[in-house]
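Hi R.,

Here's the chain you asked about this morning:
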Amino acid sequence: MLPKMAAVRLCASVSSATLVGLWINVYTDQLAHNGYMTSLTSLRWSNLLLGLGIASLIAGETAAWRWRTLQEDEFRRLYATLQQRQRRILEGMLTIVCKLVAKTLNIPCNARYFVAEKDQEGRYYIRQDRDLAVLNIRMPREFGFTRIYVDTPHIVSGKAFRDRVPLYEELPDDHSNWYEPDVGRMIEPQQRWVLACPVLRLDSLTNSHEMSHAPRGVIVFYGTQLPDEAASADAVQVCLGYAEQFAEQMSHVFNMLELSTELESSSHGNTSGTS
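And here is the predicted structure, written out as tokens:
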């Protein structure tokens, strides 16, 4: 793309310089015998050289601008396609991991990704990603879920976000009494366990984790039946490992998308600098 754009601009510049140069030579010859205005008017059709030179320059810059616009449109289209495909990959992976967790614990479970965002006061909260979810158990109170601040007491996903570690906790029968009314209305009373793992925000180039970067969100597995006590300890550790691996893959996917955006921005900046 860049070589073609440079070739178009070079041809337009050479044509413009040639035509304007010819006009200057003709005009200079006329100046030797006449005044400025008289020389200009006496050129007649030769003034077309100047007009064609200017038009050639404008046409070259317009073509280059149009080419850049098409390039940006193509990138946005490809980027949107990449996002959709990465999204489908994550959805498929979450379905598989949810099945693994359910099989390991020998109980049905749901899985959902919660996106972390910051409000105007700088407080982090999590909200549902309504598409990236596997819902095998009906929990009516989730339907009206809005958002929960990560510092809300007794919220396992919030604690996993704050501590940046995967957690598993079982909930008592009366856990609904723990919450404030505006929080309790979004949490199913029949829920008995939660397994949450933060999706860390890694450096897009080094894949390293820095404490200054808050997690992107939290992946949560949960259900209404407690696992068998005899096998639960080992099984929970296995499931925590599944959640870690899925969260790690999510981080890499997000990093690839960010790198694509940074590369295009850099390319566009270099292209604009040559304008």
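One quick note: The mean pLDDT is 80.

Cheers,
M.
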